[in-house]
User: Fold this.
Amino acid sequence: MLQFLARRILIAIPTVILISVFVFALQKLLPGDPVLAMAGEERDPEVIAYLREKYRLNDPVPVQYLTWIRGVLTGDLGMSLRTNQPVLVLIGQKLPVTIQLAVMAMIFALVIGIPAGILSAVKKGTVTDYAANVVALSGLSVPNFWLGIMLILLVSVRWQLLPASGYVPLSEDPVRSIETMLMPAFVLGTALAATLMRHTRSAMLGVLTSDYVRTARAKGLAERKVILKHALRNALTPIVTLTALLFGELIAGAVLTEQIFTIPGFGKLVVDAVFNRDYAVVQGIVLCTAVGFIVMNIIADALYFVLNPRLRKQ
Amino acid sequence: MSPKPPSHASTLLSVRDLTFRFRGQTQDVVEDVGFVLRRGETLCVVGESGCGKSVTALALMGLLPRNAVRIRSGTVEFRGERYPVNDFDRVARFRGGEMAMIFQEPMTSLNPAFRIGDQIAEAVERHRRCGRAEARARALEMLQRVHIPAAEQRLDEYPHQLSGGMRQRVMIAMALANEPSVLIADEPTTALDVTVQAQILDLMAELQADTGMGIILITHDLGVVAEIATDVAVMYAGHIAEYGSAADVFGDPQHPYTIGLMSSVPRLTGPRQRLTTVPGMVPTIGTMPSGCRFSSRCPFAAPVCAERPPLAEVGPGHRAACHFAPLDRTLELSA
Ligand SMILES: Nc1ncnc2c1ncn2[C@@H]1O[C@H](COP(=O)(O)OP(=O)(O)O)[C@@H](O)[C@H]1O
Ligand code: SF4
Ligand SMILES: [Mg+2]
Assistant:
């Protein structure tokens, strides 16, 4: 297993390099000049020249890349062109917010998706199964922004149960923090719940007709134990892997939800940076996200190993 | 049909009139099946693939998919209780305990995610209401009993670490852990190598001699039947074509299907034969002849065969479902 992980990490390295080159190149090809955006209304040529020099924008592009990547390797992602803060600090501030959102969304997704998947597999072909599938399909097809806005209108404006926006850090006031995140996490979690439900359902269906489930029944075990122990344990292996992968996607997908609920997270950082041509920040974020994705992928593979006795011992 | 008259050994299990079909089908997959199993004896159920042997066994164990099957009739007498076959809740109470089953697929019948010791112990805990440690001790005892080498070590291994033969031994250990009085073995050796097959059958015979359990052995290996059967039920297309003691069915087969099966099998010795010797195919549910189910392949088929023959007595405790049985009398008449 260690060998396998080592191989995965070795493959990950060129992947990250490729992504970094790609991200850097794309930035250069985009229209718009960050310096013009920074220089203000007057566009004083002297200021512009000074800024270009300061951010080494006059160097040839490959040199710019190497300068940047050297910084990255030493833990320096550069400075934000706009706020003049280190990119790493910005990311460090915003990422925990988004991770909190993603974790809460994942909890919603797991708590709804997996039991619903089990139920609809066990009750295959019944009204329960159809109902679960209709709800899941709706969960997948309803756009997040619409669901978010409807929730705000209903829960916050009409019933005044939860705040529509206004983020409170977890460390400051945990209860209030979780309260403000409930709706966005739900919105973000619904689509995932639907995905998880459908995967759980099909995994369970595959397993419920297996010979070892029949053996479990032949032992005289109660049906609940047959399903929740013998069947679920095997159906869960791909689901756990999927969850790790979805978690990476969740962080990327949080952008829109954060906008709707005005949460000052990763998403807001990305949007602001892109609109302001804040190269260093965009690059830093994309690189972080890519690395995050790859790490989640490796974790997913590792989990698959851990959960599979057949692979574990070899 | 009615069960055989009681003989010397005490009856463990008797089944009558078992008839059921799968939902959405217009014909029964199993019709009027009945038999008796006595203490210490082995009833072999033989017949070509698809004739309904496995589903009959699963019906007795209450393991048929509840909402996909319609049990139309069937009564079981077991442990002094008489109950309808579709009383699945009652069966659930003693399956794995008083009545246990092993399957044709040793490679996939154990849960790949759990240690084999735990899988056996689970069956013990369920029926003995005992603690973990006791169940584990019993699991170890059973692994030793089925002659698994280094049993203590094996207890903590996963199924993939064992060969097919070893896995079937584990299945037997699990099935016998609660000392069932009836063991149903559905082609327990079909998936195994020939030498391993013999070992598994010897093991079952050994354990039967120790415990006096009754075994229902489903097989299509006539050599095996000749060796170990006390009674034989020959199934064809969902019903019993012939039923009787092994001596009667082998020594004096009365149903043309049985005769076809036997004709190429050297008696009791010689290489084992598979049931592929009767020309033609088993009719499927849709193409089932309305009269005798065997008529589409029977060399003796006559106009009278358009009517379904009853499973009639041809000798003491020996029955055959053919209009022309008993054959010797028929031959005498025509001579
Ligand atoms: N769950 C099921 N649904 C529908 N048909 C089934 C099901 N299980 C078995 N059958 C059918 O029942 C018949 C008897 O099968 P089976 O008992 O497995 O035969 P065998 O004698 O080879 O053990 C076959 O035609 C099979 O296709
Ligand atoms: S009843 Fe007729 S068709 Fe059926 S087995 Fe006897 S002879 Fe053959
Ligand atoms: Mg079968």
